[in-house]
Amino acid sequence: MTSWQKILKKSITSPEELVQCLGGSYRNIARVAATYPLRINPYYLDLIQKTGLPLYRQAVPDLLELNDDEGMFDPLAEERLSPVPNLVHKYPDRALFLVCNECAMYCRFCTRKRKVGTPKMRINEQTLDAGFNYLRKTPQIREVLLSGGDPLLLSDSRLEDILSRLKEIPSIEVIRIGTRVPCTLPMRVTDELAALLKKFHPLYINTHFNHPAEITPEATLACMRLADAGIPLGCQTVLLKGVNDDAQTIYRLMRKLLAIRVKPYYLFQADLTRGTSHFRTRIETGLDIMQHLIGHLSGMAVPTFALDAPGGGGKIPLTPAYINTCGETLEFTTYQGATCSYPNHQSKSW
Questions:
Q1: Where are the domains of the chain?
Q2: For residue 340, how many C-alpha atoms fall within 13 Å in the half-sphere facing its CB?
Q3: What is the pLDDT of residues 195-208, one digit of tens each?
Q4: DSSP label at residue 169
Q5: 20 to 30 Å CA-CA from 120: which of 8, 113, 301, 334?
Q6: CA of 98: how far to CAs of 54, 162, 177, 179, 278, in Å?
């Protein structure tokens, strides 16, 4: 058993252990954990104890999860868009392939909290074979995103087998991996793992940090190992009430991400997932944060604020309003609040 597996094995998975470490109501935690699984590994537990509420809210079950009448069990209609189990074909040229049903920590805001870490999410040789068969017979799919759960919780050999089988499909040009491991269990990213992934270029990784306190020396090393292996890294941050819903926190997070060679990719409005309504902010909150970022922060560090449309409608960018009028002249407001104009006509010389 490797060191990261030993750390994972020592995770808090029961209400009793959690109350002993962090306090709280055993009864309430037990009620929530009976529906939505609990896992906090020792690394992230230490961060909670050092940082407090912003990380605590992401990891510790809250009774509000059971008092959500607004959310949807499957807000992105993934089950409807799955031609075979655990493969979601939403966009014409891309597919989401769920290859692991576990995570290093079970985030309380998870879009798939209806099934991740529970028997409802079955992944085995049969489901994997069905996914590979669908990809082989659907050549318009040129890009596959591996997700779950967290694909990087698979063993190196298991991960290599899956990646090898994808590379054998001629129509697949690009592989992406969605993982929160660099944030929640960074010691999983070993030199051996980085060397393994390097063999499967073009390969991209989107990771997931929500708060500046999550960018530790261990997380920095994990991201550096992946970047040194030539893997472009992006970050998909979720806007969460009581965690990061203010401009200064997001500003510091984006700067820190760029410093560890992770490109801020998306800032997501939280999905309409059942059990997460207490995390959701108003759209105006995200737009205001974006106005505090644009122009005040390097463009490299500015994410796209986006909403993943309910019902499988796909990702929709949400942008602050800078345009006042658009006719023969574009009238707009700069990031500093000044009015400006730009001629909006074509040259007659052509």
A1: 64-317, 322-350
A2: 9
A3: 999 999 999 999 99
A4: S
A5: 8
A6: 28, 11, 10, 12, 27
